[in-house]
Amino acid sequence: MESVLKIEHMSKKFDDLIVLEDINLSIDKGEVVVIVGSSGCGKSTLLRCINGLEDIDEGQVLLDGETVNPGNRNLTKSREKIGMVFQSYDLFPHKTILENAILAPMKVQKRSRKDAVEEAMRLLDRVGLAERKDSYPRQLSGGQKQRVAIVRALMMDPEVLLFDEVTAALDPEMVREVLDVILDLAKQKRTMLIVTHEMSFAKAIADRILFLDDGRIIEDSDPKEFFTSPATERAKRFLRTFEYEK
Amino acid sequence: MDPEIIREYIPIFTQAFILTVKIGWIGIALAFLIGVLCAFTTYFKIPVAAAAVRCYVELFRNTPLLVQLFFIYYGLPAVGIRISAEVCGAIGLGLLGGSYMTESIRSGLEAIPVIQTESALSLGMTNGQLFRDVILPQAFTISVPGIVANVIFLLKETSVFSAISLMDLMFTAKDLIGLYYNTMESLFLLVIFYVIMLLPVSLAGTLIEKKVRYRMFGD
């Protein structure tokens, strides 16, 4: 398998606080990697470092063998190839759903409006939102907004998609509609790196589970193995917090 | 009130009205230009310039227009720079208005959440594209009510122009009262002409606010 994204010896500090320590990771084309871990373990920071929203202190991120570190002149070029969907609704509120989807393709990739609109409509249709193309984000529910955010990221045809707790701010019923879209992407063999607290979803979608604790990857395993017999005591404790007994 | 006197005064007031509106709007255009430049300087934290902007804003926001006009009109000739009362009025209004516009536009820019920047960047947009297509249109929408309020405020502030002998509405009214004691008629026309000057601005402002705010806020 060919590796798309590679992280070598990446470390990140906020002042004196070590957030990520010596992260090494290689993700193959079409692989779905789910990152789990308790709050503050560095999951989100890891994603943000990958597309250069955060500076890294040591090591490097490589996309197709090219570095993505901030300061690199090709940073915007690399970001085109790394799609990201955030936890909070990040759609552009002054633009309609359709305009949200076609803005970057037209500005960044200089695609024609006709071409961009055609693809946007195809993708919006796929997530069941073609009819809402002329609505503004404020007129959509949280789940609908996240589906549009996914479409907007897909419009750039990224090589890797990063999902940063995209369902954390949603009502339970809306979580489903968003996760279904991501499952659909997995079937299409999209390369994805997903941070989530939805354990059953992680189990269903992951080819690989990374367990992060205190800024380090302490488990990198097959989902079946991770959920049935985690190797570390820390992971066992983490997984127990999702179980309830009376 | 004598309708005959009012009829007689209308042309005089009309002339003063034209002068007031002209200098008022030149001043406002200047204020907007200064506001945009200063707000961008602050937003992008340009070293030294941003600090200078801060000083300028605080200085002009916290002194009355009358004092500023006196300073420009009587102060500049003392250092050898001569300007007409018209130019002085426009510059004075522009500088005062600039400080208010800076704050309105800056607050709009700073109200845009960081996530907007991050999502635009993660789509591969450049800083220029981010600012032009994402930040600026949203910031403008938020700034509009403040900008409209500033315009109305500045047009009303033109009433102190009379202090530097500009033949504006206020000057004309005071002049006519002093000459002929037709106080009622003069004051009546003064009020009417100010309303004529400001009412369309108020109405247009409300309309613009509605139009630009609909997209983002829906009300």
- The CATH homologous superfamily of chain B is termed MetI-like
Give the neighbour order of strands across the main sheet of chain A: 6-7-8-3-9-10
Beta-sheet strand percentage of chain A?
A: 25-35%
**Overall mean pLDDT score of chain A?**
91
- Largest interface in this structure: A-B, 31 and 21 residues
How many helices of chain A? The count is 9
The CATH class of the domain at 3-91 and 159-240 in chain A, by name, is Alpha Beta
Q: What does this protein look like?
A:
The complex is a heterodimer of chains A (246) and B (219). With 246 residues, chain A is an alpha/beta fold. Chain A has helices at 43-50, 75-81, 97-107, 113-126, 142-154, 172-187, 199-205, 223-228, 233-240; strands spanning 3-14, 17-28, 32-36, 58-63, 66-67, 82-85, 160-164, 191-195, 208-213, 216-221. In chain A, helix 3 (97-107) crosses helix 4 (113-126), helix 3 runs parallel beside helix 5 and helix 5 (142-154) packs parallel to helix 6. Chain A is globular. The model of chain A has no long low-confidence stretch (mean pLDDT 91). Chain B has 219 residues and is mainly alpha-helical. Chain B has one domain (3-217): MetI-like (MetI-like fold), CATH 1.10.3720.10. Chain B is flat and about 70 Å long. The N and C termini of chain B lie far apart (45 Å). The model of chain B has no long low-confidence stretch (mean pLDDT 93). The A-B interface holds A 51-53, 76-77, 79-84, 86, 88, 90-95, 103-104, 107-109, 136, 138-139, 149, 152-153, 156 and B 115-116, 118-126, 129, 133-134, 137-138, 141, 215-218.
